[in-house]
């Protein structure tokens, strides 16, 4: 059976390696050197801004994209910085700026929050995505693209 040369499009299953880096070159995530990941385009596995970039790419193709915050993790939202009464934190916990706590969101999922300041009365926690406001470098290598039943 020969290799299909199907380009990436809505509903195709894509096998790829990727890396996500910041403009200063620091790598945030990468699976280069490991097995490719696979997902169906449009299933919500990949942010829409990243998905749009790989549309039309074919197996064997590699590209480096510069992704502005609006198409990546968004801009920081002041409403996502909350002041929480100090009494909500266990007295045993030694607070420090930069500490990440896991909070329950309205749907029962986990929501990480970063301590940005605190005093005896309150703790200010930032719930923005850690990469909000950052331009992202997205390096992607397409290995295989397969049509799916949905396609």
UniProtKB/TrEMBL annotation:
<dbReference type="InterPro" id="IPR001179">
    <property type="entry name" value="PPIase_FKBP_dom"/>
</dbReference>
<feature type="domain" description="PPIase FKBP-type">
    <location>
        <begin position="11"/>
        <end position="85"/>
    </location>
</feature>
<keyword id="KW-0413">Isomerase</keyword>
<dbReference type="InterPro" id="IPR046357">
    <property type="entry name" value="PPIase_dom_sf"/>
</dbReference>
<keyword id="KW-0697">Rotamase</keyword>
<dbReference type="GO" id="GO:0003755">
    <property type="term" value="F:peptidyl-prolyl cis-trans isomerase activity"/>
</dbReference>
<protein>
    <recommendedName>
        <fullName>Peptidyl-prolyl cis-trans isomerase</fullName>
        <ecNumber>5.2.1.8</ecNumber>
    </recommendedName>
</protein>
<dbReference type="InterPro" id="IPR048261">
    <property type="entry name" value="SlpA/SlyD-like_ins_sf"/>
</dbReference>
<dbReference type="Pfam" id="PF00254">
    <property type="entry name" value="FKBP_C"/>
</dbReference>
<comment type="similarity">
    <text>Belongs to the FKBP-type PPIase family.</text>
</comment>
